[in-house]
Design brief:
Length: about 190
């Protein structure tokens, strides 16, 4: 969104036409395989491109948030654990019924979940997390690697109660595009 560039794939050539930002980012796009699951994708990319970096960030790329990721990173460094996940309160999509037998005792339309946390999809890891992963195509980040990391007491959660949404459905995409078009997208900070 901030630079124009051309990539010549056959010649392995990149031409930057304009730089319209002040960010000092290094972005690598790595092909890890069409059928490769999340954990193996991270492991394969890290084994090629992490270099000597002690910490790295991971995101799925299908979520938007107004979370302060710099604050999450500082939190990650301060906690001293191998991993940190952004914890968000899940948005409620349905009404909730509390019942006793067939009698509805309480009806709540799309209640806010205050004490329930889900994986918000923004992570920071120390390089010592990499042995939890395998390059095997079936390695799913959210299964054995993160479950074991939590069991080992090495996973922290950075709490975020602000805006967060992901694109899992066409409806999600339409709602977020509508927010963007309105000029009121909470994640555009």
């Amino acid at each position: 969104m901030n630079s124009d560039f051309t990539v010549e794939l056959k010649k392995n050539n990149l031409t930057v036409h304009s730089i319209d930002h002040e960010e000092h980012w290094e972005v690598t796009l790595a092909y890890t395989g069409e059928l490769t699951m999340t954990g193996a994708r991270v492991q394969r990319a890290a084994s090629k491109y992490l270099g000597d970096a002690e910490n790295f960030a991971v995101t799925y790329g299908d979520g938007v948030t107004d979370a302060d990721l710099s604050a999450e990173y500082r939190f990650h460094l301060g906690e001293g654990r191998l991993g940190t996940v952004l914890g968000v309160n899940p948005p409620s999509r349905f009404g909730e019924l509390k019942v006793d037998g067939a009698q509805v005792q309480e009806f709540s339309e799309k209640p806010d979940f205050v004490d329930n946390w889900i994986n918000g999809g923004y992570f920071f890891f120390k390089r010592d997390f990499l042995p939890y992963l395998t390059p095997d195509e079936g390695c799913v980040l959210e299964r054995e690697p993160l479950i074991k990391l939590a069991q080992d007491g090495q996973l922290s959660m950075f709490r975020h109660r602000g805006f967060w949404a992901c694109v899992d459905t066409q409806r999600d995409l339409e709602q977020l595009n509508k927010l963007w078009a309105s000029g009121d997208a909470p994640w555009a900070v």
